[in-house]
Structures are given as C-alpha cells and as structure tokens.
Amino acid sequence: MWIYFYAAHLLGDFMFQPDRCVNGRKERPILFLGKHVAIHIVLMAIASFIAMSMNNSFHLPVFLLSGQAILLISICHYLIDYGKMKLNDNLKGTGNQAFLFLLDQMLHFLTIWIAFHGLHISTRLLDNGAASFFRGWTTDEKIVATGCVFILATYGADRFLQIVLQDIMPNRELQEGIYRLSDEKMEVKIRHKNDGGQEVEITTVKTEQFFRDSPAKIGSIIGMLERMLIVIFMIMDMVQGLAFLAALKTLARFKQFEHKQFSEYYLIGTLSSAVIGILLGIVASQIW
User: Fold this and answer.
1) Which of 128, 5, 143, 8 is nearest to 65 (CA)?
2) Neighbour tally for 28: CB within 10 Å
C-alpha cells in the first residue's frame, strides 16, 4: 500500500502545488507549509481509499492503521520541508540547491517506506503485498509504481533540471542574437550605355529576420515529453527510439547551434535530461 501513498506524495509535491504556495513560504512559512501539507493529507486519504477498494479491505483496523500512517507522514513532511526551507536560506549555489532537492525527496520517500513497514501496514492490508521493489507486486501496484516513474520523469525531473541549469542559461542579450536569421544574396544589374556598351553592377543585399522565441514553458513541456517517451521506449525495449528523439530535438534547434553559449546550454540540458530519462526507464522496465 505504501506505493499508493508515494504516488500521492509525488502528485502533491509536483503537480498539485500552486506557485503561490511555493513563493508564499518566504513571507509566511507556517501558513503556506500548512496548506501544502493539507493538500498531501487529502491526497493520502484518497490514496488510502483507492488502495482499500482495490484490496477489499474496508475494516476498522485498516482505517486506524491508515490514519496513523497519514498522521506520521504529515508531521514528518512538515518538518522536512521546514528544515529544507531554513537550509535554503543558508546554502547558496546550484550544487547545494540540487543536493537539497534530492535529499528532500529521498527523506520523503524513506518516511513513507519506514512508516508503512514500521506499522506493518503492508502485510496487514495485502495478503500478497510487495516483498521487494520489483518482485511479488500486484498488477495494481505495478501500474501505480509506473505512474510514479512518469511523474518523476516529467514534473520531478523538470524541477531538478531548472535548478541545475539556472547558472548556464543564456542571457537576454545572447537570446536576441540566437533568434535572428540573416541572409545575403547577390544582385546583378546591367545598364546600357549610350555608346552601345554595357555596364554591370553587382550589389550584395543583406536581409535579417527577427523571431520571437516560444514561451519558456514550451521548453519544459518538450523535455517532459522527451523523457516520457524515453521511459516508454525503455519499457518496450525499443532503444533505437532514443536516436530518433535526439535527431528530432536537434533538428528543431539546428539554427541556434551557431552560437557557442546556447549550444553548450542545449547539450548539457539534453544530456542531463536523457540520463534521467534512461535511469528512470531502467527502473520502469524492472517493474514489469
């Protein structure tokens, strides 16, 4: 049953956490952290109901155990997020921010895992409960676990890459040059003289076209779709599809590779995104 709660955690952390809730923590941390945890409590209650429905386990002891798990996880979640918020104020730099992000998610995962195995909820709720991460799972658990991988590959990885790439993102002056297309062509004009001769005049005509770049969120969506397809290809054992994705993404940005800083930013971002997608794809392939 713990995998249902972990799915609820990922939904609450990445998909159902409004931007105003994240930004408001700096001014009113207790209030907005409380709202964030409240969202998690609702999602965990829904996850508990779904898990009990799947296993026909609507009994008082099960309700009590689920309530204990929700209470314990919620308290730990609040403390972990509050500690992370305090550390964010003291630890600056991309490396520290990335480390805090990974540490935060690892602690949340361990909290859910320990809470369920410490309370023995998995063995009491499910007669054929999971004995390990990739063995003995029911079909429902595998579907939920695969959903967790997709959330991590899309929203979770996007949040992590925003932290990692923030220092090497091209500046505004550079972006103005990136999205400008220049062209040159020769024009030949022939003029006839009064004496019957001809005069050839060759001129060079330069043209420039300026294009407004797509919104920033479009790049995030493209990255999410890329990692989602990588996971699908890995599950289906279609590794050759990775080359198709790389070629397609490169074609869309081909003209911008003329600028060194953008090409470096693109290469680091693409490789990082691909590595995350492949690692999560390996996890997803092992589930099934």
Assistant:
1) 5
2) 11
C-alpha–C-alpha distance, residues 61 and 57, integer Å: 9
| Residues 47, 74: Cα–Cα separation, whole Å | 14
User: Is the distance from CB of 53 to CB of 42 less than 8 angstroms?
Assistant: no
DSSP secondary structure of 122-145: HHHH-TT--SSSSSS--HHHHHHH
Q: Is 252 exposed, middle or buried (0-12, 13-18, 19+ CB in 10 A)?
A: exposed
Q: Is 191 exposed, middle or buried (0-12, 13-18, 19+ CB in 10 A)?
A: exposed
Q: Give me 215's structure tokens.
A: 């919104």
Do the beta carbons of residue 116 and residue 56 sit within 8 Å? Answer: no
The sign of the dihedral angle between the CA atoms of 99, 102, 105, 108 is negative
H helices of 56-156, in order, are: 60-90, 94-119, 121-125, 139-151
Q: What are the pLDDT digits (tens) for 233-261?
A: 888 888 777 777 777 766 656 555 556 66
* pLDDT one-digit tens code per residue, 65-104: 888 889 999 999 999 988 888 888 777 788 888 999 999 9
Structure tokens, 170: 């091209």
Helices then strands (H, E): number in the chain? 12, 2
Place of tokens 């490789």: 271
Give the span between the Cα atoms of 259 and 269, in whole angstroms.
16
